[in-house]
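Minutes, project huddle
Topic: does the predicted pose make sense with magnesium ion bound?
PN asked that the exact inputs be recorded in the minutes so nobody has to dig through chat later. Recorded below.
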Amino acid sequence: MSDVDRILTPEAVAFLAGLHRAFGARRDELLAKRADRRAQAARTGRLDFLGETLEIREAIWQVAQAPADLRDRRVEITGPTERKMAINALNSGAKVWLADLEDANTPHWDNVIGGQANLYDAVRGTIELTTPEGKQYRLKDDVTPAVIVMRPRGWHLDERHLTFDDKPAVGALVDFGLYFFHNAQALLDRGSGPYFYLPKMESHLEARLWNDVFTHAQAELGIPHGTVRATVLIETIPAAFEMEEILYELRDHASGLNAGRWDYLFSVIKYFRDAGSDFVLPDRNAVTMTAPFMRSYTELLVRTCHKRGAFAMGGMAAFIPNRRDPEVTAKALDKVRDDKSREAGDGFDGSWVAHPDLVPVCQEIFDGVLGTKPNQLDRTRDEVKVSAEELLNVAATPGSATEAGLRAAVDVGVRYIASWLSGNGAAAIHNLMEDAATAEISRAQVWQWVRNEVVLDNGVTVTASLVRSVLAETRAALDGLAHLDEAAELFDQVALADDFVDFLTLPAYAKIDC
Ligand SMILES: CC(=O)SCCNC(=O)CCNC(=O)[C@H](O)C(C)(C)COP(=O)(O)OP(=O)(O)OC[C@H]1O[C@@H](n2cnc3c(N)ncnc32)[C@H](O)[C@@H]1OP(=O)(O)O
Ligand SMILES: O=CC(=O)O
Ligand SMILES: [Mg+2]
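Predicted holo structure (tokens), as shared on screen:
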């Protein structure tokens, strides 16, 4: 039977239709609210904690207790749901596999449906593969498979291969709905459950929508309320001001928050792109997790989670090993060790790695801090106090804007978009993991530098014509790359158009024809 026949059964499609009829219009309203709120913040350069939800922040409440297989999350491997990578992730020794239909995935229809088919087999432990070269992959007998936590698309993306009431489907509801419909009961039967990572939310009202979707889906399938567990990525600047409210909305279903650093940086640039030089960031590689505004964000996240009994999950260090180059691998291991040590020391309960060869280093660091405990929820970090000013203190970020930084942004942006259009939503570029979030930073930063007429450290001012000449050189250097022309054109649009494009994946999705 084809993947489409296995996944898009009439019952599954009817379930999706029910989700769309119940929640599609609310999704549209919430997306419209995003634009209003940003326009207001851009005028003032300010965001603040909400007055109307003060009571929630001051009241005593906790999120639901984590299910048994989500109490120890010290190492989480992330990756696309492609069959070989799925098996490798499940066998990697990580506690959790973030099965990614989002930042690391191009929503080609084959990836969307094939990913669901791979998840179906993964949940049942039957996933196998024989490559054209004859190499065989199956789940190992001597490794506990990673617990699956699936990440659906964000609220902003449609899925045009399905329509309900003559409108394209909501990508997030398709990804969630198919996974939940096919696997919720099977997961429960195996002692696990339907677990999700929720990306790119901008407010607690968007979390409320997810909570209502979970409540509806559980009732429809006769699955007990509270079976779903969701970890929310705090990866937009407005969401950083609503961490408690987001957990509160999802409290029956919440299991934690994650510091999604790459989209967070993108969001800071996007949100305040017109708010003047105080929000202009230096080269992407110069902005580290020790920049004051990034530290305020992660400190507040750990404090908020542990106050509410939720897990605080660390993010992705982008350095990846190379099995053919020991020097690159040694550097990646050092960088990842530093990153995970800081997170474990700050109170995070676990963190992300992008590659199986990074599982041991993350494990070693968290083992060292956790000892025999499964997590450090008991480190409540009561001493942490973070103000709105500290979250917004972008101006104190050390580093400069350089010509090398500009060239790197253009090069990575074009290469990544080309990869995305080819169907690979995650790629190793110059020994760094690049995905939709990191590429967004590159192009948004170029837009911001042009808009703010940033002067590079060599005295040259960044203008659209300078960027176009760098783009032409990049294009010449990458001659022969698949999808190069479309990628360069798209980069020009998302980095230089007067009106900032909200997500590069929106015009990119319009360009794919499968
Ligand atoms: C900002 C964020 O949202 S971060 C989260 C989203 N991003 C991601 O999830 C990216 C995850 N990582 C990846 O996709 C990959 O590691 C890449 C694209 C960066 C590099 O992949 P490759 O170039 O294939 O790496 P490499 O050649 O070293 O792979 C070696 C082996 O490890 C496997 N592997 C590499 N990364 C992963 C992974 N994340 N999960 C499972 N297996 C993996 C490869 O499939 C390969 O397997 P094989 O030996 O059986 O053939
Ligand atoms: O999704 C994670 C991020 O850093 O973005
Ligand atoms: Mg992200």
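Observations noted during the meeting:
- The pocket of magnesium ion (ligand 3) is lined by residues 103, 199, 233, 235, 260, 262-263, 437 (CB under 6 Å).
- The chain has a mean pLDDT of 97.
No decisions taken; revisit at the next huddle.
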